[in-house]
Structures are given as structure tokens and as C-alpha cells.
Amino acid sequence: ISLIFHCCQSLKINQKDIVQSKTLIIENRGFENFVIDSTTIKDVIKKYGKNYEEIEYGKYSYNTEIKYRQLGLSFWFETSDSSKTISAIDFYFPFEGITSRGIELNKSKMSDVKLAHDTLDWYTTNTSPYWFSEHVGIEYAVERDTILPRYPLDEKLHTTKKIIKIGVLNNKEELEENEY
To answer: Distance (Å, rounded) from C-alpha 173 to C-alpha 102?
Structure first.
């Protein structure tokens, strides 16, 4: 019996360690020491190195993405910003993170987002493979079902899909403007 008790105690510790190994993603802020509107690309490269892909989206927006595909992290900045200050951070596989509201990347579903935020504010673009739900300081993405027409959204189907991308951004003013 003592052996069984110790095995069970060991399992509890391991489960606790697994939960704690997830990186905390904070709305309107970022994660660890990487804070939007404060951290620069220079800080990111210092920590993660030069093994990244740089993508300028000049045709579609005024942003540049520094993509660490092997880490599941992307850092965004305005192309015209000489200091290259981070304006948004995307998290995707293989990154393991959980938001301050308990939404876990690659595990939670869009229905969990609805419970955490009381609503889903859906959007997509003509070229995006995702449906997003945007909230103050954060957005969540699920894979768009490409068998169906893009519009209208099949909310019932997409609400059951796993969150495969989380973005932290500073969008409070933008969302407040759109409320009117």
C-alpha cells in the first residue's frame, strides 16, 4: 500500500509540473520578459538568435513579422518603426502556452473562449486560413473549414475547433472605436 501511495503522490507532482510548464500568455502584454509596445526585435534576437524568417507585408499592411517557426513564435513590428518595437506576438505549435483566462493553445476550443470572454467576435480575411475571435489585448484563431464557403460563418462548427493560434496585441482603442 505504501508503494501505491508513493506512486500516486509522484503522479500528482508530475501532473502539477506539466501544468506549470505551460508559459503564461498575458492579454495586452505578452509573455515572460517580452512585452508589446516595449520590447524590441533586438531584445528578441538576443534571446532567440538569428534563426528566424523575416516577412514584410508591405502589400497587405505596414507590418513586418519575425517568425521563429521552430519555437511557434512570431513577433510583429511596424515596418516604419526605426526602433522595431514589438506591436504584437503570435503563439502557435509547438509553443505551449496558456492565457491568464485559462485558454490553452492547441487544447482549448473556441467554445472555451466564449465562456472566458462571454462572447465571440468573429472575423476573417479573404486570404486567411483562419477564423479569429478578437478581444481586448488578445485574439484566438481556429482553422477555417475550407470545404465550406467562407461566408456565412458556420459558427456551430468553428466553435468546436481547437485554438491553434493566439495573438497578443494592443487593440483596445481600435475595439472601442468600432463599438460606435
So the answer is: 24
Beta-strand pair 97-99/23-26: parallel
In terms of Cβ atoms closer than 10 Å to its own Cβ (0-12, 13-18, 19+), residue 80 is: exposed
Q: Measuring CA to CA, which residue among 95, 100, 172 is closest to residue 134? A: 172
Task: Collect all residues with Cβ–Cβ distance below 8 Å to 153 and sequence separation of at least 6.
Answer: 122, 124, 131
* 87-112: pLDDT as tens digits: 999 999 999 999 999 999 999 999 99
User: What is the Cα–Cα distance from 27 to 138, expressed in whole angstroms?
Assistant: 5
DSSP 51: -
What pTM value is reported for the model? 0.84
CB 66 within 8 A of CB 75: yes
